[in-house]
Specification:
With 428 residues, the protein is an alpha+beta fold. It has helices at residues 48-51, 53-59, 109-114, 116-119, 123-144, 184-194, 230-251, 253-258, 264-267, 278-287, 300-307, 362-371, 380-387, 400-408, and strands at residues 14-27, 30-36, 41-47, 67-76, 84-95, 149-150, 156-157, 169-172, 175-179, 196-204, 217-226, 275-277, 314-317, 330-331, 334-338, 340-345, 350-357, 393-399. It contains 14 helices and 18 strands. The strands form 4 sheets. An 8-stranded mixed sheet has the order 6-10-11-18-17-16-13-12. Strands 1-2-3-5-4 form a 5-stranded mixed beta barrel. Strand 16 and strand 17 (350-357) form a beta hairpin. The chain binds 4-amino-1,4-dioxobutan-2-aminium adenosine-5'-monophosphate (4AD) and magnesium ion. 4-amino-1,4-dioxobutan-2-aminium adenosine-5'-monophosphate binds at residues 161-162, 182, 184, 205, 207, 214-215, 218, 220, 222, 351-355, 395-399, 401-402, 413.
């Protein structure tokens, strides 16, 4: 049994493929069958002279997505997308398929999302999901090769990390739990135990807005470091992003071609990234005539305008404390500002990384928990980290789907995860 992605090793040989019929066209005494096996696509040419009348006639009626075993001789062909074709000698149907709903004509996105379990069989979706796989591998290798310890954080949590408005409550025996919005708080505890750690898992936000950047369930990788500052976090994030982009360019050329992704802007992604303070960013927005409220957070279109000023991702740091979560450390030189950073991707993809230095002072942290009207008892364990050997520490979160959308050049994050969850979408 051979796989299409390694077909080059079998040039001139007879091999058997197990796959599905992706497409079929015929001309006289030849059928051109596009076979996919999950690892790739190949054209299998069936001639009546080789296989005989019965099989040839049967093959002319096979429906799209029929599963089949095909035996044939591999032949190099410079015109073929993967460089090879196959001349069929035998074909057996494993499972029939008729009236497959997703045909080569174009369909609306809702139609496709309703059939996401089938849509993922298509060539573009293969390409996106393979890029996602490589991005995730690159992320893991990056942290594993730098001495970070993977320490998983819980999905059921008793309290909010990123604001109470986007919590998903779930009934948890006789109490209420919330699906995690971020592993950060537990990550901080893990960093006090293990030094440099990361967690990587699904996170949940009850986002009521329909935008091209928001999912209600998304995957976030979050590093956290003891004895670290905002500066350390910016450097680490730059290196992570650069390494993920370089690895994807290296390993997924074919997929980026399938997606017709212009690689030039990705090739620009090198350290160091340009940096802007919040104040400088706000000035740019004002100069560009954006209706922007000084002291407020940036909206999606604002982030696009900021990112457009540069040819690589930009780090915007020191946002007003009022726009950020309760755990951000104030800048000692400007206590109204936080030691926070967002990294904005180029080409309008917006914030891909958010993080900063954490509040390490017990009294100030207590005060912030009260100001944010968070239930203190739920954070008691978190306050212990400031009671027993508190140290400066910092970290960030990077959203995998936004990174994949950017690298693939997609106009919406919904295609970057096998089964997207959004405001109006829980199926399939
Ligand atoms: O900026 P956020 O909210 O930061 C945190 O959650 C911190 N606690 C992380 C940390 O410091 N450990 O989210 C981090 C990143 C964003 O930059 C974005 O890439 C992604 O997570 N993200 C989303 N991705 C898809 N859909 C959503 N609804 C997202 N919300 C955030
Ligand atoms: Mg953020």
């Amino acid at each position: 049994m051979a796989h299409i992605d390694e077909i080059a090793q079998h040039d001139g040989q007879t091999v058997t493929l197990q796959g599905w019929l992706h497409n079929r066209r015929s001309s006289g005494k030849l059928h051109f069958l596009t076979i996919r096996d999950g690892s790739g696509f190949i054209q299998a040419v069936m001639s009546k002279a080789t296989v005989g009348d019965t099989l040839f006639t049967q093959a002319g009626h096979l429906g799209q997505e029929t599963s089949l075993t095909v035996e044939g001789v591999v032949r190099a062909d410079a015109r073929a997308p993967g460089g090879y074709e196959m001349d069929v000698t035998r074909l057996e149907v494993v499972g029939a398929a008729a009236d497959y709903p997703i045909t080569p004509k174009s369909h609306g996105v809702d139609f496709l999302l309703d059939r996401r379990h089938l849509w993922i069989r298509s060539e573009r979706q293969h390409a996106v999901l393979r890029v996602r796989h490589t991005v995730i591998n690159a992320v893991r290798d990056f942290f594993n090769s730098r001495g970070f310890i993977l320490a998983d954080t819980p999905v059921f949590t008793p309290a909010a990390c990123e604001g109470t408005t986007t919590l998903f409550p779930v009934s948890y025996f006789d109490t209420t739990a919330y699906l995690t919005q971020s592993g950060q708080l537990y990550n901080e505890a893990n960093a006090m135990a293990l030094g440099r750690v990361y967690c990587f898992g699904p996170t949940f936000r009850a986002e009521k807005s329909k935008t091209r950047r928001h999912l209600t369930e998304f995957w976030m990788v979050e590093p956290e470091m003891a004895y670290a500052t905002l500066e350390d976090v910016i450097k680490l994030a730059e290196e992570l992003i650069t390494s993920v982009v370089a690895r994807t360019l290296d390993e997924r050329q074919r997929e980026l071609d399938t997606l017709e992704r212009n690689r030039a802007p990705l090739e620009q992604v090198r350290t160091p990234f340009p940096r802007l303070t919040y104040d400088e960013a706000a000035q740019i927005l004002t100069d560009q005539g954006r209706p922007f409220q000084m002291g407020g957070d940036f909206g999606g279109p604002d982030e696009t305008v900021l990112a457009e000023q540069f040819d690589r991702p930009v780090a915007v740091h020191r946002y007003p404390s009022a726009t950020k979560a309760f755990y951000m450390k104030p800048d000692p030189e400007r206590p109204d500002l936080s030691l926070s950073v967002d990294i904005l991707a180029p080409e309008g993809y917006g914030e891909i990384v958010g993080g900063g230095q954490r509040l390490d002072d017990l009294d100030l942290l207590l005060q912030r928990i009260q100001e944010h009207e968070l239930p203190q008892e739920a954070f008691d364990w978190y306050l212990d980290l400031r009671r027993y050997g508190s140290v400066p520490h910092a970290g960030f979160g990077m959203g995998i789907e936004r990174v994949v959308a950017w690298i693939c050049g997609l106009d919406h994050v919904r295609e970057t995860i096998p089964y997207p969850r959004m405001l109006n979408r829980l199926r399939p």
